[in-house]
């Protein structure tokens, strides 16, 4: 999808051999297809040989697409947890294509669960696939990469960010992804001048089968296509081997390369995009100013401003005051356009159960459970709830950072965010 006049659309990867883990679907396959258009050789090192009951694609269907795009494909059954399978696939690749020029460590496992909720087998899976698999595949390919004219290793892993926020809600997953990034730090220096080693990470959520499972129905509208990572990867892999040790964000690199139209990468052009994990700066983008309130102002938890209005002798808590304002702002229009019931399970100083009914005629909001079963249950701290409803914390950002947990209809949760934008001026 890069501009036709771009300098990196000529066949720079023609004849190159790419060994890509997890290339049967998603981001790995997108990178493979991009290189295949140049006439590259692609080793599809992935687990899925037989069709999966819920996930699309096998190493053989991916191979057919790669060949149709103009490349040569070598499908290999590889579970990166099994060292011998990696070794056998690398030997087969060298025998078939004469060597390996590029390794893309894309295979990854994810479980966004807290320490006590993460089963040992899930911890083992993430550590084995993300860290150990990346390390062993790199180790096995490196002797062959060193013989290439312009060798590259590219890991799909984030810039390392020691903000505790990125550890507290999914410690095991974060450790495993940062393990991949530490491979970049170490190997880039160890093989400087011989092999380029870099990391690539998306600025926004990318629509894959994994994202569908994590986010549920409607999440795709907040995502970009895998094409953006394929184009960014192509830029990196066609640079000289002196370009090494970098942690690259897809959009940042493509802007530097002259790409201006990013709507082509959006699933739903114009729709707000969900930022990806580990990128703090995104949490500052789009955050609204402190909400405008009338009457006297009280400082709620963590400095959240709430409107006291005609306050009673005992001022309402920040949460109760927020629901009072929401109830006052109810309208038939909100009810007609939303058609959902939201339950909030709040923890912390002002914890408790609250609801917003935007399905029943006239709508209502208050403490306790909703009059009928909730379509969406949201769990978060009372302090973050107040921030979210006063425009200081966007729901999508709260969700991606783990501050907000959502069960139920994700599309309705997105509708609520739209309503909040309109309500902010009243809260």
Automatic annotation (TrEMBL):
**The UniProt record lists the keyword Manganese:** no
Cellular location of this protein?
Answer: Mitochondrion; Peroxisome
What is a single cellular component term in the Gene Ontology annotation? mitochondrion
Molecular-function GO terms, alphabetical: oxidoreductase activity
Q: Which domain of life is it from?
A: Eukaryota
Task: Give all residue intervals belonging to the SCP2 domain.
Answer: 331-420
- List UniProt keywords, sorted A-Z: Mitochondrion, NADP, Oxidoreductase, Peroxisome
Q: Which InterPro entries match?
A: HSDL2 (IPR051935), NAD(P)-bd_dom_sf (IPR036291), SCP2_sterol-bd_dom (IPR003033), SCP2_sterol-bd_dom_sf (IPR036527), SDR_fam (IPR002347)
Entry-linked SUPFAM superfamilies: NAD(P)-binding Rossmann-fold domains (SSF51735), SCP-like (SSF55718)
Q: Is Phosphoprotein a UniProt keyword of this protein?
A: no
Q: Which family does it belong to?
A: Belongs to the short-chain dehydrogenases/reductases (SDR) family.
Q: What name does UniProt use for this protein?
A: Hydroxysteroid dehydrogenase-like protein 2
Task: Please tell me the species this chain comes from.
Answer: Podilymbus podiceps
